[in-house]
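Backbones bend. To wit:
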Amino acid sequence: QDEKKQLTLKVEELERKLESTSAQNIEFLQVIAKREESIHQCQLRLEEKSRECSSLARQLEMAIEDAKRQVEQARERAVSRERAAQSKVLDLETQLSRHKTELNQLHRSKEDAERRFESRLQDLRDRLEQSESTNRSMQNYVQFLKSSYDNVF
C-alpha cells in the first residue's frame, strides 16, 4: 500500500507536471501563434515596401531617362544655336569685308573725282584768266581804236 500510495502521489505529481507542461505548451503555442502572425504581418509589410521600392526605382529610372533626354535636347539646341551664331558671324564678317571694300572703292572714286574736279577747276580758272586777259586786250584795242578815231577826226 505504501508503494501504491507513493505511486499515486507520483502519478498525481506527474499529472500536475503534465497539466503545468500542458499549460506552458498552450502559452508557448499562443506566443508562437502571435509571433507567426507578427512574422506574417512583417512579411506583408516587406512585400508592400518591396513593391513601393520597385515602383520608386522605376519612377527614378524614368526620371533619370527624362532628365538625360532633356539634357541631350538642351545640348542639341545649344549646339544648333552656336552653329547659327557662327554662321551669322561669318555672314556679318563677309558683309563687313564687302562694305569695307565698297567703302575703299568709294574713297578712291571720291579722291579721283576730287582730283578731276580740281584739275577741271584749275583748267577753268586758267581759261577764265586767259579769257579775261583777252577781254582786257580787246578793250585796250577798242580804246586804242576809239582814241585813234578821235585823233583822226
